[in-house]
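Notes continue from the previous slide.

Worked example: a multi-chain complex. Inputs as given:
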Amino acid sequence: MIAALRSGVAGGRLSGLLLVALPVALLIWLVLWPVLQAIVGTVYFPGTGFSTASYAYFFTDAYSLRNLWLTLWVTALTSVLRVAVAMPIALYLRFRSGPVAALVQALALFPMFVPSVLVAYAFIRVLGPNGIVDTILVALHLPKLASPYLTPAGPIIGLVWDGLPLTLLLLLSGLGRVSIASVDAARDLGAGSFTLFTRIILPRIQSSIIVTLAFNVLGLFSAFTLPFLLGPASPEMMGPYMQRTFSDNADPLNATTQAVITFAFCAAFGLIYVRAIAKGRKAPA
Amino acid sequence: MAQVRLSGIAKAFGKVTALDAMDLVIEDGELVCLLGPSGSGKSTLLRLIGGFETPSEGTIAIDGVDVTRLPPERRPTAMVFQSHALWSHMTVHGNIAFGLKLRRLPRAEIRERVERVLDLVGLSGYGARLPSQLSGGQQQRVALARSLVIEPKILLLDEPFASLDQHLRERLRDEVRDIQQRLGITAVFVTHGQDEALAISDRIVVLADGRMQQVGRPGEIYAEPKTAFVAGFIGAMNMLDGTLADGEIAAGGLKLPAEGSGPARLAIRPEDIALSEPEEGRMVTVRRMIDFGSHVVVDSTLADGTHLRVQTDKAVRVEAGERVGIRVERWTVFAEGEEPRRYRSDTVRSFRDVRYA
Ligand SMILES: Nc1ncnc2c1ncn2[C@@H]1O[C@H](COP(=O)(O)OP(=O)(O)O)[C@@H](O)[C@H]1O
Ligand SMILES: [Mg+2]
């Protein structure tokens, strides 16, 4: 009897291991192995031995550092903006219903179905030089505004729009754990919208916000299409920088070094993300 | 202190009419139960009084002041929700103190009032706990305390104990009644359980399909249901489809004196039927005897197979398959579009005009 139970437990463990074996194998093959290769390839050179020269170069090269800072800055600002824009929409969708809410939801999720390249060209047509906004301003004899196209603001606007749906969905799932009754109860006792948000809703979706931010940061740090099409040529974000170093400059060593550094940053954010999720699991709803 | 007056209230959600043609006055210090099946509009009515919904038609006045367009926080009401309404990130003390802090009361007073209300709901010493460290019943006590601490004139409760087990539910509803009487506040209690409504109300409002079926004291609603729905919904009732003709109603082989003509429904309470000597037209076949200890219910069938429940003395013993006679002592006839007619065997005359004493 006990032996049977034991073998049952062991069997459960075995099938559990088998279940995770495939994803783990894929992870090792497609992620960890290339990363390891990249790290080794940038510090060990057959014939000459170990050298961290390419890293020393990156962290002393003013241009590389400026690119890194720009990337961090765009990533941080875009993540925060995405949450700031998506939050009111999410609150509205969670606590209101009816035809207007359905329309808002459809509009907010729309960007999810538009490829980034189209977003970039639409952006250029609207906000770019001689775009729709410019044309209207000129027609009204108003002074032209400086176009955000090819400035850091360009990719930020594009990325905020592009990432809005996913951010909204993540926040909505967090807000799903805040019951309508608990909000009604606070209103009943006299809480205004601000108090309601800061004292009742925010404390309960903290971990969701961290998850949302970390998730956004992960995707943004290595974003390529929108920064490449809308961003300034110098400084540039890590994505376009890597691409240019690799193909235009035909410099795989430095491109790989940049990739490893980017990966290290993403891994750090990934850790925050995983921890926030674990914490969210533990916290009672 | 607080009287609630609803005049011509209607509420529609899109095409769904949740409430229609409601006129109701809830007197000061009264505990009124809104009783009805799920979807009958009980919560909607309560939320209208609390200010969480605005009526499509009609007005709501509290103590003569029109509050129809006022938001919840500007009404002298406080609502206790069915469940999941406590703030899990705050302690019990934090939950209860919330409303007082919003009113910017001094700290010492807040602490004192929270202590007092915790004592009132029997949770002294629980202030530092988190809601997740309490049982379901304790959580609802906290919700009650949170509403009471701001000293509302009108307490609104939306099936507050529906998710608790029967014993706890009974104890808590009695406590609510107790507290309501002690504080002398007006209370509106939503429930779909007739026992609950009968046990604690001063008056019961029976709702069905968004319409008020009857308003009355518990005993009155039980003894003199105004509609067939109320008759069938409150307490055990045998509801039989019958036909009126020649001063009689015939239903399922049973014939009883009654005026009128055409189709009608015959309502007889199990306790208004007694077992007696077999007699033509007054015979049933026993299917099963259910012994409740305090009394016995005989599940039987009439000549055409219609079920009839008979409640009798605990000393009575009958066998399945046995044919026994019955004597119906009181019955009510509901005919479409007419007032119900009530009869009793000793006089066999309509006594619909006799008010319930
Ligand atoms: N917010 C709402 N939107 C649409 N329909 C609603 C809403 N609230 C209630 N209803 C409808 O109104 C009717 C009465 O609901 P409710 O008052 O919750 O009934 P009860 O509390 O008696 O179960 C139901 O048909 C319900 O579907
Ligand atoms: Mg309800």
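Summary box: The pocket of adenosine-5'-diphosphate (ligand 1) is lined by residues B 13, 16, 18, 36, 38-44 (CB under 6 Å). Chain B has two domains: 4-223, 236-356.
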